[in-house]
Amino acid sequence: MRKLALINGKVITMDESNPRALAVFVLGDKILKVGSGAEIEVLMDDDTTVIDLEGKTLIPGFIDCHAHPMGYGQSLMAVNCATPPVASIKEMIERIGEATEGKPSGEWILGRGYDDFKLAERRHPNRWDLDDVTPRNPVMITRLCGHISAVNSLALEMAGISKNTPDPEGGRIDKDLKTGEPTGVLRGGARQALREFIPPPTFRQLRKGINLAAEKFLARGVTSVSDAGVGSPLNVRAYQAAIRDDGIPLRLNLMMSSEVLGELMSLGIETGFGDDRLRIGAIKIVFDGSSSGRTAALSEPYEDVHDSTGILYLNQEELNQRVLAAHRAGFQVGVHAIGDRAIIGVLDAFEAALKELPRGDHRLRIEHCGINSPAIVNRIKEMGVVPVPQPIFLYGEGESYRAGLGEERARWAYPMRSWMDAGITVPMSSDCPATSGEELISPLLGIYVAVTRKTDAGVELGPEQRMGVDRALKAYTLNSAYATFEEGVKGSIEPGKLADFAVLSEDPTAVPSDSIKDIAVDMTIIGGMVVYKKPR
Ligand SMILES: [Zn+2]
Prior knowledge:
By secondary structure, the protein is of the alpha/beta class. It has 17 helices and 23 strands. It has a 7-stranded parallel β-sheet. A 6-stranded mixed β-sheet has the order 3-2-7-21-22-23, covered by helices on one side. Strands 9-10-11-12-14-13 form a 6-stranded mixed β-sheet, with helices on both faces. The two termini are 30 Å apart. The structure holds zinc ion (ZN). Zinc ion (ZN) is lined by residues 66, 68, 228, 431, 434.
């Protein structure tokens, strides 16, 4: 069996009985011993690979328990419309124009990642912007939240959307206030009409995307990722091929869309099926939109959208049924809810399901769980629910939160401190690529935001929700393993657990909090194998 010794390090273990150590010995893919240099040295022989950490910090590999590696991979292949690098609609249109050159008529042009709030024009692109450069190709540019798209006239025509088309349930077709013509901006369920016209990515494209995404995660010290929404056999096969045939080392948890619950049930599959490389996780249900896109369902209207309280994609009865069906089938359940109105609806659905079928350690999850109140925090605690937040949203979207939610509600967005003080186990995650900008998948940037509550403009958003860096590190490792029922096998550096680590250039607990985001990941190790090394 392979033997690996990691010596001369500052080891932060997340193991309460042995919080700090200097060296680790790995046998095969698991940790055998954690201790002093001398304790590890006696285990070393001629076959042992030795890595001298030279005083650097060794932590458990980061666990991103809510991201979209498949979607992220595809976005890495679509036209990059993220803000930055794109600063204006004008620039975005230029990029789309360039991507269209040489493409045969009728072929779709897909773009992703714009943030209307950060564009110079402070609005969504519309069909008229796009028509000039793409008269013969349908175009769809999806906002970074993944819930709103801007399309050109050709795409609207294909989908049969005109001034007479009513808003579908759970969606909105933006229309010009004077003429009533659709502007090309489609929200929520209104995007559904386009689906059948856009050729889905092929198996090869999906597999390539997973490989591209995996590389990005490894370079950030992430060793496990949950895909928060897998719904097709092609996706599952692409993940299998990426792991088995391409040998990507990233550990993956697939949260399955509730639409395929019937298929999973007919095969007797439950949460936990698989192995430590690829595993079936929770059933995922989407209940509302996003707060930056002003589609998250709030109790009180947005500050900057007249009379709107967001969108619920399902009515309460439908949600209750879906939650109960998955819970009954033996699955952990994770429901996407960002606005407080949506969160309350999810808690009601969880309460009803647990009343019908009580289960002790259920770890029912609320994905994002954005806008809270003291009453919501109490209910989460009482019911043993796991919120799955992304404090990183406060960084890129913080200014938009302040404008849309107002100062008071924005302070209660992702209330990490209140949750933890209440005794709730809080994981952390990126929701990548729902955040724009490549560095936003970085756990160290997420930890910096949780610790400082600073937006990318450097403004503090609810400083009373700042948390200690040790707590934030635990959230992104051990607590994230808890969120997928895997804290027994990973998330801390202790004997018997998987040998997944990140080597950091500095100790996050020993630098000023503003410097946490600048710490480099020097090395990533999965199952005792070095899978990433920072280029010198
Ligand atoms: Zn998500």
